[in-house]
Amino acid sequence: MRNLVRSEGYARARLVTGSIAAVLGAILIARTLASTGLSFKVIPACVLGAAMIALGIVRFRDYAAARRGPL
Amino acid sequence: MAAASLAAKPAAEPSLRRSVTPWGSFSWGYSDVGADIFVGLGLVLGTAAGASNVAFLFAGIVYVCIGLAYTELAAAYPVAGGGQYFVFRGLGDIFGFIAGWAVLLDFTIDIVLFAWSCIDYLSKLLPFLGYVDHPWVHFLVVFSLIAGLALLNIIGVRESSAFNEFVSGLDVVSETTILFFGFLFAFQPQLLIHTMTVSWPSPFSLMNGVSLAIISFVGLESISQAAQETQRPASVIPRTSISLILTILIFALAYSNLALGMQPWHAIPPDPHGHAQELWQYLGNENNNGAAVAVLASYVPYFGTIAALYVPVLGAILLLISSNSGVFGSSRIAYAMSGTQLLPSIFQRVHPKFRTPAVSILTFCGFAIVELIFASLPSLSAPVKTIYARLFRGEDGITFLGDLYAFGAAASYSFVFIALIALRLNDSQSPRRFKMPFNVPFTFKGNRVEFPIVAVIGFVGIVSILVFTMITHEIGRIAGPLWIVLGIVGYLFYRRRKRLPVFGSQPHDWRKAQINILQEAGELEMMDEYLVNVKRMDAARTTTRETLR
Predict the structure, then answer these.
(1) CB-based burial of residue B304 (10 Å sphere; 0-12 exposed, 13-18 middle, 19+ buried)?
(2) ipTM of this predicted complex?
(3) How far apart are the C-alpha atoms of B497 and B344, rounded to whole Å?
(4) Nearest CA in chain B to A11
(5) Which of B151, B311, B330, B424 has CB 3.0 to 4.6 Å from B297, enough for a Cys bridge?
(6) Residues of A with CB below 8 A from B23's CB?
(7) Which of the residues A48, A60, A63 would you substitute to probe the B interface, choosing the one with the greatest number of B C-beta atoms within 10 Å?
(8) CA distance linking residue B89 with residue B83, whole number of Å
(9) Which residues on adjacent β-strands are paired with residue B442?
């Protein structure tokens, strides 16, 4: 388990799920704005989408760090 | 050489074992915070109605600020004690005690509240465990659970950590799957906006909802609690904390938005008066608010059929490990506080074989048992129920614990923000591998320092939540301050008896302490950097003094 979570393969799997989260986050923002327009009530949904995109970015950075070598 | 002499330890003492890995560090935090949404979702929906997602957003923004503060501090000062240690170091002995005492309140309640909820979730599949119909069985099972967790933690962190790592991973996968199916097949943005428009609550209900929503984010400091047992903490903690902050924020916002904007897969049953109700109303009512995540999952298209069968079990497991985090956290804080003479030295005793703080574990599990008895008594005895109704205005024991949980969290986090600002100003020479964003550089007492804007935002946010808690929770505004006052009285008595400064602080050699901390953590590069910074600062001071002469 410990070796697995330190491996590049694990980081790659996290990168894939992070990328999916980022794409879904972008879709959520686009869909919410497209169907309801600009209003303060869309803020919670848009923040959720932005957090999902941020998760994707963090996982990409983790992957880059794992490629440089184990911690 | 200087490092070697400063870092020399007087004697080999038993210490906590460094066995927590990056995944272990994440799962310690996740196991504590991740379960909160299982308890918080239904409570917030029942209170904040159509603004539940706004309540979670407000609490979530404050939580992000708290998370960033803990990440910076835990990476710079990787010792057991977390927020309590940061306040102690930044603001002095008495404030360190108050912050630690507030966190101890939270962790002991954490043990009871989540063990209790764990059995509630299980009772969805095993009705004989139900609190309403079988209070004695419920009480005895929760009691046994707490006793079992105490034993597990005395045996050692390695075993507990492995347990947490497995279930945390399982839960992340499961929750992601539920949300994926929900958002993909049933989420309608128009419905979300409609619900927010027609079911917007009163300002009082919104404040109440925000104060309950912060409950869903309590416990992030478990990562910093585990700092003294984490391998290479300065490198590991920023990575795990940022992932954890985002994961928890996403889950909380996703569940609340989904509950308000999801078209349910099956028809929602009418309320007891025969009126039609929406999904969020169904989730927030008395029958379902204790298991809102499980009920929501069962209404997700396609996957809901499977989710209805296993989510109660998964919720119970996650709540169990959250309760376990409470045992872990309370014992480590007490360990740290006794090491700095804020609590009697008995709490620092480490088990000779397992090297875990056994006395602390047993003591705070004992407090948890007392809280359990207090919370259970109304259901176990009719006369006591009458007394409770008269004294506590009809609120039951669990509501009382929830009030105190919110109070303790808001009080301790307020101090942590002030401590972070104080440490930025007074300990600028300690290397920080991670810093909160948005800082204003300026010169303070001859040193270049950075003032953290996010800490100020977070402080204002958490104080607002503390005020909301005091305004909206009738018992919490009395019992919370009472806990703090009783703790201070005990502290003053202890310090006077030991002939220690009562209101002031003992002299502390923070330089030596910091070198020891970094050396023991294996962060030797940071230790060298710290020594260089200290020498540079001393040289600058000497030059200034000579110039003045």
Answers:
(1) buried
(2) 0.90
(3) 11
(4) B23
(5) B311
(6) 1-2, 5
(7) A48
(8) 10
(9) B449
